[in-house]
Structure formats: C-alpha cells, structure tokens
C-alpha cells in the first residue's frame, strides 16, 4: 500500500514537473520571439524617425537586457519561485555587484556619456582607447572597433572616455602627409612644380584645399620635400598609396638621381702600411 501511494505521489510530482517544464519551454520560445519582435520594432521605429544608429543600437542593447531579465524572472515563477523574493535577491546582489564590479559600472556610465555626448558615432574612423579603426558598436560596457587590418577589438567604455579620442571622420576632409628626399643636384623648385602638376590627377584628391608641396628641411642626402594632398577620410589609403606611386614615377621619368649622402675621405683617415721587402704586396709591386 505504501509503495502504491509512493508511486502515485511520484507520478503526480513528475507529471506536474513535466507540465512545468513544458510551460517553461513554451514561455522561453514565446518570450524570445517577443524580445526579437520588440527589438525589431524599436529599430524600425528609430529608423523611421531618423534617429542616429549609435543611439538606436545602445537602446536596443539596454532593452534586450531588461526583457531577458524579465523573462528569466517569469521562468522562475513557473517553477514556483517567488518573484518578490527573487527581486529582493537581485536588489541585494546588485549592491554587492556594484561594490565588487565598480569598473563594470564605470564602463556602463561611460557608455551612456559616449552615446549622449557623441564624441563619435557608429561608422566613424577613430583612435580611442589606444585603438584605431571604424566604430561598429557602442555597447553598454564596451565599444567594438574594427581595425584597418580587419581585427574586431572591444575596448572598455571607461578607458575610451578617460583617454584622448581622435575622430578622423568629424571633419569633411583629411590631409595625407608624405615626404620624399631629392638629390642635391636637383632643383627643388622643378621637383615641386612637377609634383604639384600631377597630384591633381590622382583620383579623389581635393582641388580645395590644394595639395601642399614644399621644402620641409635639409638633410645630408638632399632637400626633404613634404607632399600633402587632401582627400575625404574614406579615400585616405587610396590617395596615400597613389601619391607614393606618383612620386616614384614622376622622379623616375624626370631622370632625377638617387639622393645620396656625400662622404669626404682625406689622406689622414686612410690606414698607413709600411711595406717591407718580404711583403707579398711589395713583391707584387716589383
């Protein structure tokens, strides 16, 4: 009799647990679908109102965290866990986490400042937190930057906000800085005129401001020219490499000699050797 009662009790418990697991699974699937739907609607709404992509992604990330926490609380409620008790635990845990993870909260606060003060936005080419690249995501705690060599790098928001930020996309154009040394025998004015005449033919070089070419300084190998065309930030590397190629082709076609540092050799610097009749060198001279 006891065995039958135990079996019946076990069956009842297992049946109840199975129903709870099934309900939790349905709730999880429905909840995740609703979260994706809510995030999609938020994104479309922001896009219709032409809200900046940076702010849109930041709000979507925050909403995703809140909705997922609510979903977990609802799942615990299915299994009979008191949500009020769980909320109290979350509050108490939040205080402990705030003390232990002060740096994480600092990143969160810095992320909010980055979104609302907007020193840069998604798509900008920046140097931030010691990393140079294109901003992909400004998250709650970190910012994702894709470097020019296509490496995804995540930098803590607090490190970015407390460091120097260079935004290369903020201004409408950027200067390409290059230098070239010419031989002492070459007239700098002729070299400057040749380069200025051909720089404008490079694609995406701006006509205004006009490219700068001039003598930067004098070196033992020859005058050092600075070559500085201007272009939009998106065309920087194309103009950089095209200008380097143009310098080589222009000076090669003009027949300019290679710059070389002259050396003066005097007799006093040569080693002295006294030949004796038995030296091989002296026998060869006889």
Question: What can you tell me about this protein's structure?
Answer:
Helix content is 52%, strand content 17%. It has eight helices and ten strands. It has a five-stranded antiparallel sheet with strand order 4-3-2-1-5. Strands 7-9-8 form a three-stranded antiparallel sheet, with helices on one face. The longest helix has 47 residues, at 2-48. The model is unreliable at 281-286 (pLDDT under 50).
Detail the topology: elements first, then pairings.
Blueprint: H1 2-48, H2 53-78, H3 83-100, H4 102-117, E1 125-128, E2 131-138, E3 142-146, E4 152-156, H5 157-161, E5 165-167, E6 174-175, E7 178-181, H6 188-199, E8 212-219, E9 222-228, E10 230-231, H7 236-253, H8 280-285
Antiparallel strand pairs: 1-2, 1-5, 2-3, 3-4, 6-10, 7-9, 8-9
Helix pairs in contact: 1-2, 3-4, 6-7
Total number of beta strands: 10
Shape: elongated
Largest sheet: spatial strand order: 4-3-2-1-5
Helix % is: 40-55%
Q: Bin the strand percentage.
A: 15-25%
- The low-confidence runs, each spanning 5 or more residues with pLDDT under 50, are 281-286
Order of helices and strands: HHHHEEEEHEEEHEEEHH
Name the average pLDDT: 81
Oligomer: single chain
How many helical stretches?
A: 8
Secondary-structure-derived class: alpha+beta
For the largest beta-sheet, the strand count, sense and barrel status come to: 5 strands, antiparallel
